[in-house]
Specification:
It holds the Pfam family Cyclin_C. The chain has about 250 residues and is mainly alpha-helical. Helices cover about 60% and strands about 0% of the residues.
């Protein structure tokens, strides 16, 4: 299982702060306003393969530069939201275009989330080297496509809250284990189709090491008032992906 470094625990320890019902309701209402469904084209094998490659590269850079987990998640969110709003037929078969998109999404996420920002020239790929101007042009295209709405909600804001609702004792350890499952699962799930709250709940349930059926997931969610707005089908689907990753770790 991927582990968190001391620096990450220290810098992102705010993830473990207890959130109240009002704050969670506010986050859920923001999700309802900003989230949309992904295009059916995102399920095409060629696009799924290109996306998986881009996500793996982002996660590799996270480790290389010691970036925060929020940064990686936000970068993948930018990638997925961009692909929803833009027809990417022109990128099909053009590996360099997907790579440029992933570099630019990570660069923007770093600017939003990190205190120390690497130079654009440091975001190197194994197969392509992009000029700074090319990355900046792609950044502007991403910004305009997302209408400059770059402050993304992430599952990490929910983890402590949901962990404490599902497990009375040891909820902090449960939340930290859920973090590793989220990072392991984002290659398999589109972050537009799966809202941050859904990803958070699914990761918490998977981290609990219970073998749950769809019915038992529904019962657990129905017992918590703040979970009732969640799409139980999506939660269960995401739970299955998270559970697969947990078994592989």
């Amino acid at each position: 299982m991927a582990s968190l470094t001391d620096d990450e625990v220290s810098c992102e320890g705010t993830l473990m702060l207890e959130a109240d019902d009002e704050y969670i309701e506010l986050l859920l209402s923001k999700e309802n306003r900003c989230c949309s469904r992904a295009r059916d084209a995102s399920s095409e094998d060629s696009l799924k393969s290109a996306r998986s490659d881009a996500v793996r590269w982002i996660l590799k850079m996270r480790v290389l530069f010691g970036l925060g987990m929020r940064t990686a998640y936000v970068a993948v969110s930018y990638l997925d939201h961009f692909c929803v709003h833009r027809l990417i037929d022109s990128m099909r078969g053009k590996k360099w275009a997907i790579r440029l998109l992933s570099v630019s999404c990570l660069s923007l996420a770093v600017k939003m989330e990190e205190l120390k920002i690497p130079a654009l020239s440091e975001f190197r790929t194994e197969d392509y080297r992009f000029q700074t101007e090319a990355i900046q042009r792609m950044e502007l295209l991403i910004l305009s496509t997302l209408e400059w709405k770059m402050n993304m909600i992430t599952p990490f804001s929910y983890l402590s809250y949901f962990a404490s609702r599902f497990l009375e004792h040891g909820s902090e350890a449960l939340a930290w284990e859920a973090i590793t499952l989220i990072l392991a699962s984002i290659e398999a799930i589109n972050l537009v189709e799966y809202r941050p709250s859904v990803v958070a709940v699914a990761a918490i349930l998977a981290a609990s090491h219970e073998r749950l059926t769809q019915k038992s997931v529904e019962l657990k969610l129905s017992a918590i008032s703040s979970c009732k707005p969640l799409d139980t089908d999506r939660v269960f689907s995401c739970y299955i992906e998270s559970s697969k990753k947990r078994r592989l770790q």
